[in-house]
């Protein structure tokens, strides 16, 4: 007995909408099993998943625009997004064209430099770079909070 043309089997039970999904976000085993991916925090993995969801292939010119409001929709705070993006950039998952003062969203590019971090020495260098970025950000934040001291002449 032959199947009718065009008929689909019912959606899988894990389908939350009860219908077939029109878009899915692929993750590849070599990436998930990589030392760089394993080194990411849980928040960075979540932010990366959201950025990957925004990617629609060649139609978007391989540029992903993802404003903070997109992350906030998923309950992620701005500070967490910033720290996660720093991790993703340091570990070679994304590159960033930062948004400007005119409230333009940052533009992200998916890259595969994470493959280079299979070398433990390079992974440690990436971790050190990330720690240096954190240290600088913390120092800048402290300096911004201190009132400026004006000397009388």
Characterise the protein shown here.
This protein is mainly α. It has one domain (29-142): Arc Repressor Mutant, subunit A (Orthogonal Bundle). It contains six helices and three strands, in the order αααβααββα. It has helices spanning 29-32, 35-39, 42-54, 68-73, 78-90, 120-145; strands at 64-65, 94-97, 107-110. A three-stranded antiparallel sheet has the order 1-3-2. Helix 5 (78-90) packs antiparallel against helix 6. The longest helix is centred in the last third of the chain and has 26 residues, at 120-145. The protein is globular and about 70 Å long. It starts with 28 loop residues before the first helix and ends in an 8-residue tail after the last helix. The mean pLDDT is 82.
